[in-house]
Design brief:
7-stranded mixed sheet; 3-stranded mixed sheet; 43% helix; 16% strand
């Protein structure tokens, strides 16, 4: 959906900037008074540089601590459709200025709109849970070794074959941590003399991995295919800086679903560009694998794109599959190279066998290899729930962005003070929802992020919608006329269905 609709109205933006300026002035005034009259002020040890810069330290003390109770909530149950959120209280008595939160032991049952449990596998499952428990009984918790030493088990090999078959690739390799999949895989495939062209809103793991590689990095505007082509054309024509030699390799880095925007990448157009300019395409499907497409095979199936046109397919097991770890899938030549060079494979502990079994079992449910149609029903339920919830929020007047079928939907709050109020009111109404602000988002684009699950019933969603409407009216969250967004949602739905119909989704 159009990104321009997420910008705040002029008056809202002006008020935000005024409040930030006021907080900054008051914060600096307090620091001056503390230096003059409070002798126990923390000072850096003599001879040592400060760990934090002055700007970072000021932001943490004078801005972040005012809203720190919005973050790091502790849960006391499995992240199912409902989740127990543990109650916390400020033990300092100093209010927003210097909160120190401690648990009281009380539980608050809430509708879970904050977890990435897209298909409901993170809670008890009749097929997965018994097999995971049986695996843990026979193998224990950890292998205490890397995959390259003595940490490879038969379940890892089964998982890699199953992942490759599921995503439509020749082979795959798995790692024990999703974030590290990007940060260790990217430097293993590129280096000095290579060019990386990355979407402006790519995940931090992609950004860190690209920086670690030593390659030249250029950024194109989020999901802007025209800007991407302009950078490709200019960069290939000019070659490497100073020498103007041809680039050794050119990579385009994108995500399937952008986790802070809920938007699906413009994959068909980007695939056409990568073929035209002979670039490699790296697709991060952390949030889309299992959640997008009629059978959950990600944005390739969602758009009807042949997965063989994607050079490197990356995904994680921490969302749709209710486990941990990640994978890289692609040609056998690529995966053989990674098995010899990937630091996360060579040096990190292998994925616990029980976690691997969880992914294998959930994949078999999704693919119907458990002998039932539960997997297909879960995917359909996820899409129905996501589209219903997004449309109802827009009809109620909330500014919600994201694509058709996407289970991630950012609800724009804009002002950080609303983050705190909305979090408190949601918990009071038994709704668990994540709020996100600077530096994870631009300064003026704070938001709440709703994540929908197949385990939600219509009654769960209606309960949340009823209370969110009251909260939205009380905190004045209806900023825009949302009719254009509803129209864009309808156009998005039609475009996706047309693309699937033309391709027939026959590639997997």
């Amino acid at each position: 959906m159009a990104h321009e609709y997420m910008n705040p109205p002029f008056v809202t933006a002006l008020f935000q900037l005024f409040c930030f300026m006021l907080l900054s002035v008051c914060g600096h005034a307090r620091d001056i008074l503390l230096r003059l009259f409070y002798t126990r002020e923390h000072k850096t040890r003599e001879g040592y540089c400060p760990i934090l810069s002055k700007a970072e330290d000021f932001y943490q003390r004078r801005f972040f601590k005012r809203v720190c109770d919005c973050y790091n909530h502790v849960i006391g149950s499995a992240p199912d459709a409902w989740v127990d959120v543990m109650e916390r209280v400020d033990v300092t008595g100093m209010g927003a200025c210097d909160q120190q939160l401690e648990l009281t032991g009380k539980r608050n049952p809430c509708v879970n709109l904050g977890s990435y449990n897209y298909l409901g596998f993170a809670a008890q499952d009749e097929y997965c849970t018994p097999r995971v428990l049986e695996t843990y009984t026979s193998t224990n918790i950890s292998n205490c070794s890397s995959r390259s030493c003595s940490g490879t088990m038969s379940i890892h090999q089964e998982l890699e074959k199953l992942v490759a078959r599921y995503v439509g690739a020749e082979d795959s390799i798995t790692l024990s941590m999703g974030f590290a999949t990007n940060t260790s895989a990217l430097p293993s495939m590129m280096g000095k003399g290579c060019l990386v062209i990355s979407d402006a809103l790519n995940h931090a793991s992609i950004v860190f991995g690209a920086r670690l590689s030593g390659a030249k990095i250029k950024v194109f505007r989020h999901n802007d295919v025209q800007h991407l082509e302009a950078i490709l054309r200019e960069s290939i024509a000019e070659g490497q800086p100073a020498t103007h030699r041809p680039w050794k390799k050119v990579f385009i880095l994108i995500e399937g679903i952008y986790s802070m925007e809920g938007e699906v990448s413009s994959l068909p157009q980007i695939v056409a560009l990568k073929k035209k300019y002979k670039a490699y395409l790296y697709l991060d499907e952390a949030h889309s694998i299992g959640a997008m497409g009629p059978t959950g095979r990600g944005v390739c199936e969602h758009w009807g794109v042949d997965p063989r046109d994607i050079d490197i397919l990356m995904g994680t097991f921490t969302k749709s599959f209710g486990s941990c770890g990640g994978y890289i899938a692609g040609s056998k030549q690529l995966i053989d190279h990674l098995r010899r060079n990937l630091p996360g494979h060579l040096y990190a502990s292998s994925m616990p066998a029980g976690c691997a079994q969880q992914v294998v079992s959930s994949l078999k449910v999704i693919m119907g290899e458990d002998g039932t149609d539960r997997g297909a029903k879960k995917i359909k339920q996820l899409h129905d729930n996501s589209n219903y919830f997004r449309r109802r929020l827009l009809e109620m007047g909330f500014t919600v962005i994201g694509s058709f079928d996407s289970p991630v939907m950012p609800l724009m709050l804009y002002h950080p003070s609303r983050m705190k109020v909305v979090t408190q009111l949601c918990l009071k109404s038994h709704i668990a929802m994540v709020v996100v602000g600077f530096p994870a988002t631009p300064l003026l684009l704070s938001r709440a992020r709703v994540c929908i699950s197949a385990s939600h019933t219509k009654e769960d969603l209606d309960y949340a919608l009823e209370h969110l409407l009251t909260i939205g009216q009380d905190t004045k969250l209806m900023f825009h006329d949302t009719r254009p967004l509803l129209k864009l949602l309808d156009e998005d739905e039609k475009r996706i269905k047309d693309a699937r119909q033309q391709s027939g989704s026959k590639f997997v």
